[in-house]
């Protein structure tokens, strides 16, 4: 599986607005399908940390997301990253077993978002693409009830970025 160029464009965009962004990549490199200039932008950005050959294993937090546990697939070593928000790009099949117990999923493993995700005890209404864990957003094919089409996925990705900015502010 290659890292999609659109993911990296969004990563660069987000890194312009927050102090640090971690790009967690299962592969050993960013990919051969994207332009070298984009890879160079990512690698040169001091706010961007690339964690290659890694996967998210656990989300932690009390009233919202506080940290993410990431495993290095080469050596099996976990590392904990401080985090207030997560943006997940995982494709059409709900590869969400790592989310069980952290966010609410439907019977098929798709992530529940918005009002169907959970009632908020804080009194703050969940954003349309926000999961049951405040600060964690899901968009596109992984989301329960999504239409599973590229055009809508792009739109939901853009919406999720806006919700992340609003949440961080």
CATH class of the domain at 88-168: Alpha Beta
| Helix run count | 3
For the record, the CATH architecture of the domain at 88-168 stands as: 3-Layer(bba) Sandwich
Radius of gyration from CA coordinates: 15 Å
Strand arrangement, major sheet: 3-4-5
Tell me the CATH topology of the domain at 88-168: FAD/NAD(P)-binding domain
Helical amount among residues, as a percent range?
Answer: 10-25%
The count of strands amounts to 7
Query: Could you state the order of secondary-structure elements as H and E?
Result: HEHEEEEEEH
Span between N and C termini? 34 Å
DSSP strand content:
15-25%
Mean pLDDT: 84
Structural commentary:
It is a single chain. This protein is α/β, with parallel strands linked by helices and 169 residues long. It has a domain of 81 residues: FAD/NAD(P)-binding domain. It is 23% helix and 18% strand. It has 3 helices and 7 strands; from the N terminus they run αβαββββββα. The strands form 3 sheets. Strands 3-4-5 form a 3-stranded antiparallel β-sheet, with no helix packed on it. The protein has a two-stranded parallel sheet with strand order 1-2. It has a two-stranded parallel sheet with strand order 6-7. The radius of gyration is 15 Å and the shape is globular. The mean pLDDT is 84.
